[in-house]
Design brief:
The protein is of the alpha/beta class. It has 4 helices and 3 strands; from the N terminus they run βαβααβα. The protein has a single domain, classed as Ribonuclease H-like superfamily/Ribonuclease H (Nucleotidyltransferase, domain 5, 2-Layer Sandwich).
C-alpha cells in the first residue's frame, strides 16, 4: 500500500495535527480567517472523540461538546484519521514545539 500526504480539495485548508498539542489549532484557523478546514490526525482516539464516536466521559465530555458546537457553527470542518506515515511532518513539528513557548512560530524551511 502506498502512503503519502494528500493535498486538500480546492477551496479548503488542511491542518495536520499531532495529538500532543491540539489546543491552539482552532484559534489559529480563526485568526487566519479559514472556514473550510480538513483536519488530519494519526490518533484514531482523538478523531473518534471529536467526531462523537466515543463514549461520554467526564470531564472531557464538556470540552468535546464545545469543540463540536464551535466547529459546526463557524466552520465547514471535518476531522479524519490518517496513518502515522502520512502525518510525519505534524509529528516532527510537534516534537519541536515541545521545546518552545506556546504561540505562533515560523520555520525558514519545511522539515525533511
Amino acid at each position: 500500500m502506498f502512503l503519502a500526504w494528500q493535498p486538500p480539495r480546492c477551496g479548503f485548508f488542511k491542518l495536520n495535527i499531532d495529538g500532543s498539542r491540539v489546543n491552539n489549532s482552532g484559534c489559529i484557523a480563526a485568526e487566519l480567517g479559514l472556514h473550510q478546514i480538513i483536519v488530519n490526525s494519526d490518533s484514531a482516539l482523538v478523531v473518534d472523540m471529536i467526531n462523537g464516536d466515543w463514549v461520554d466521559s467526564r470531564p472531557m465530555s464538556v470540552l468535546l461538546t464545545k469543540c463540536r458546537e464551535l466547529w459546526k457553527s463557524q466552520w465547514n470542518c471535518s476531522i479524519l484519521h490518517v496513518y502515522r506515515e502520512t502525518n510525519f511532518a505534524a509529528d516532527f513539528l510537534a516534537k519541536i514545539g515541545h521545546h518552545k513557548d506556546l504561540g505562533y512560530h515560523e520555520l525558514s524551511s519545511p522539515p525533511d
